Amino acid sequence: MLKQTILIAEDHTIFREGLRALLSATPELEIIGEADDNQQAVRQARLLGPHLILMALNIPNINGTEAIRDIKYHNQEINIIALTAHKSEAYVRATLDAGAAGYVLKNDSYHDLLTAIESVQKGKTYLSPGICDKVIKGFINQSTPPATSSHSWNQLTAREREVTKLIIEGKRNREIAEYLSVTLKTVERHRSNLMRKLNLHSVCALTKYAIENNLVRLEV
């Protein structure tokens, strides 16, 4: 049986070594390279041409989504599975849109990781079971974008845009209030106003709108 060659891109040494030890124990998998930052991962991908890259998104030098795009631009045959702690729909969509074939949470089990590897080898997209249902539903329903436009974004005040970004990052109203040093009622008012101006009715809809209109830059 032809072994599937793997490149591991992860800046935490213990985590990277743990992955290598676990995957090396699986006969059909072969670790052919490691990288501790995304710039090195891009170079290694071009040099080694692995079947699969396990890539942590929040490691140094290059933004994770940019690294994925670079790798896929030069070699569409390489499958990439993102390893991350982020669960929001925004991060999932940005990562898959960049070209990743799988999205695995770092607190998933090793069995989940093997399932992800098997899935992408078969040409499927894999999403971690730890991602909430509404995120998955958001992907299923993405063919029906919200009835709004970037013109609506221009109607928001600077503070409302700031609140929008914090909402998309997953912060609760109380956390936003503390971060901005304002009252909870002030945040609730900003949130109500921005939703009304954008004609949106949920956080998922707000996230889709921001990503689809390139209004919020995600550093993942």
List the helices and strands and how they pair.
Blueprint: E1 4-9, H1 13-24, E2 29-35, H2 38-48, E3 52-56, H3 64-74, E4 79-84, H4 89-98, E5 102-105, H5 110-121, E6 126-127, H6 133-140, H7 150-153, H8 158-168, H9 173-180, H10 184-198, H11 203-212
Parallel strand pairs: 1-2, 1-3, 3-4, 4-5, 5-6
Tell me what portion of residues adopts beta-strand conformation.
5-15%
Low-confidence stretches: 143-148
Report the CATH topology name of the largest domain.
Rossmann fold
Label the CATH architecture of the largest domain: 3-Layer(aba) Sandwich
Give the strand order of the largest sheet, numbering strands 1, 2, ... along the chain. Answer: 2-1-3-4-5-6
Rg computed from alpha carbons, rounded to a whole number of angstroms: 19 Å
> Please, how many domains?
2
End-to-end C-alpha gap:
36 Å
Structure classification: alpha/beta
Rounded mean pLDDT score: 83
Helix proportion range: 40-55%
Could you state the CATH homologous superfamily of the largest domain?
Response regulator
- Give the overall form: elongated
Q: Write down how many β-strands occur, each being a DSSP E stretch of 2 or more residues.
A: 6
Main sheet summary: 6 strands, parallel
Write down the secondary-structure element order: EHEHEHEHEHEHHHHHH
